Structures are given as C-alpha cells and as structure tokens.
Amino acid sequence: MAGTDSSRPNAGANTPLSGGAPAIVLVQPQLGENIGMAARAMLNCGLADLRLVKPRDGWPNEDAVAASADAELVIENTRVYQTTCDAIADLELVFATTARPRDMTKRVVTPSQATGELRQFISGGGKAGVLFGRESKGLVNDDVSLADAVLSVPLNPSFSSLNLAQAVYTVAYEWMRFADETPDSEISYPKETRPGSKLELTHLFEHLERELDDSGFLRIPEKRPTMVRNLRNMFGRAGLTEQEIRTLRGVITALVGKRKKPKNSDADR
User: Fold this and answer.
1) Mean pLDDT of the chain
2) How far is it, in rounded angstroms, from Cα 165 to Cα 13?
C-alpha cells in the first residue's frame, strides 16, 4: 500500500536511538535487500534503532538503501557489531525470535505478549530489544541463549517460515498496535461535508414518503407502516452525509417534476 506523507509527523522521529522503543537486532543478515525491507517495516511502525551483527555483504549497502523505500531515519542510524553480545550489551531485556523448538529451557511468548512486556519494561526506563536471525537458518542456539525469552509467531505448524522483513514487521506492528488508539472502524469525511443530522434525515424520509404516497406506491394502508420502516432503516444504515441527503432530495424532486410535468396538448401545437 502506498501511503508515505512527509508532511505528517514521523512516529519514529522521537525514538531513533533512545530508550523509547525496542532495538531491532539482525544477526548475520545475508542480503542487503532484506535489511532495507526490514528498515522500511520498522519505520512503518515507528521503530528506528536498527543494529546489525556481521552483515554478510558489509555495511553501508546500496541494495539496502534502495529496498528501504526512503526509510533514511533507520538506515542512516544503523549500527554494526561484530558479535551478538556486543549488539545487545546495553540492553536489559531481550527476546529471540525463532519458529524452531530449541533444546533449552526458555519461556516462549507470542508477539502480543512480548509487546506488552516490552512496553511496560521500557516505560519504566529499561532498554530492550528483539533478535532476528539470518535468512537461511535463523538464530543459532548460542544467540538464543543470550535472550530472556523466545518470541514465536503463531503460524501454520507445517509452514511457519517467514522471510526476515516479514518477521520484523510482525513484531514491529504489534509494538505499534499496542499503543494505537485508532478506532476499529471509522468513516473519513471530505472537508466540504459532514455526517447528516437526524433532522436532515427525517426531512428526507418525509419528502420521500410524501411523494411515494402521491405516486400510489404506499397505497395499501396495512402495509404502509412496514414499508416506511424498511425504507427508513435502509437509508439509516447508509450513514449518509449532509451532501448526500441534499443530493437524494434533489433526485426525488427531479423525478417527481418529470412525472408531474403536463404533456403538450394539441392546442399548444
């Protein structure tokens, strides 16, 4: 989905390298394109602290820049380390992402559970991060052993492999969603209109019913109340704007005017 708007505030602008959000640590990433797409996913969700451990193709990487889709805030502040220990040295809470069972005793959490813990920990002044492994094999056990818990995404058990950018986006989206106050459903109105008022809607109903009475559509008295309720419910569900109500009344007036217009008589010719 295209949706970049540089005129709007950047959700990650206040947390580039600070303790306001978790660090994303990519351990031995192989392709620059995947790093760039991971950076893009991060900035989509307001994250900007990207750390790389021994990227195979080196850093800076032109392929990463091209794939990041202008996520410069992340790319330009990316830091490179030689070991995972170095990359997480300043962190106090770390989750390791993996889809494979490990021969070690580790608490396993979902992205939503991990996000709740990260939010609470970071809001208390702590520093935290999430580890992601290389594209081909993921994290090795030595890396997983450094984490406080394993983060596992609930997926199809027989096909649970995600590419690197997908995995980063899954975790980053949960981070963004946890504090998001956007309603589950909303209507975006153009600046020149607004939701129609109940009074305006009532006038539309009365206008329509008056003309339907005149046309004979509501001619059966015992059926009229049900037909009127059905019409009102139908238009009520539509969530009409003030402009749409005026348009519909104009349509009714035009149709009625055409119906009532007298035909030319022979005397007029």
Assistant:
1) 86
2) 21
pLDDT in the model for residue 181: 54
Give the pLDDT confidence of 65-118 residue by residue, as tens digits.
999 999 999 999 999 999 999 999 999 999 999 877 667 888 999 999 999 999
Residue given tokens 């509501």 in the structure block? 218
37's tokens: 């797409």
For residue 194, name the pLDDT band (cuts at 50, 70, 90).
confident
The rounded distance, in Å, linking the Cα atoms of 200 and 196 is: 6
Count the neighbouring beta carbons within 10 Å of the beta carbon of residue 19. 17
Q: Are 12 and 42 in contact (CB under 8 A)?
A: yes
Q: Is 200 helix (H, G, I), strand (E, B) or coil?
A: helix
Closest CA to 46 of 20, 78, 80: 20
Q: In this structure, which topology does domain 23-178 adopt according to CATH?
A: Alpha/beta knot (3.40.1280)
- For 139, the token pair is 């994290």
Residue 240: helix, strand or coil by DSSP? coil
Enter the pTM of the model: 0.68
Copy the structure tokens of residue 264.
Answer: 């030319």
DSSP 106-159: --EE-HHHHHHHHHHHHHTT--EEEEE-BTTTB--HHHHTTSSEEE-----TTS
- Residues of the chain by 3-state class (helix, strand, coil), percent to 5: 40, 10, 45
Structure-token pair, residue 48: 């900007």
Distances 52 to 94, 132, 160 between C-alpha atoms, Å = 15, 10, 24
Q: Is 218 helix (H, G, I), strand (E, B) or coil?
A: coil
Over residues 228-254, the pLDDT tens digits come to 999 999 998 888 999 999 999 999 999
pLDDT (0 to 100) of residue 200: 93
Q: Which of 202, 84, 69 is nearest to 138 (CA)?
A: 84
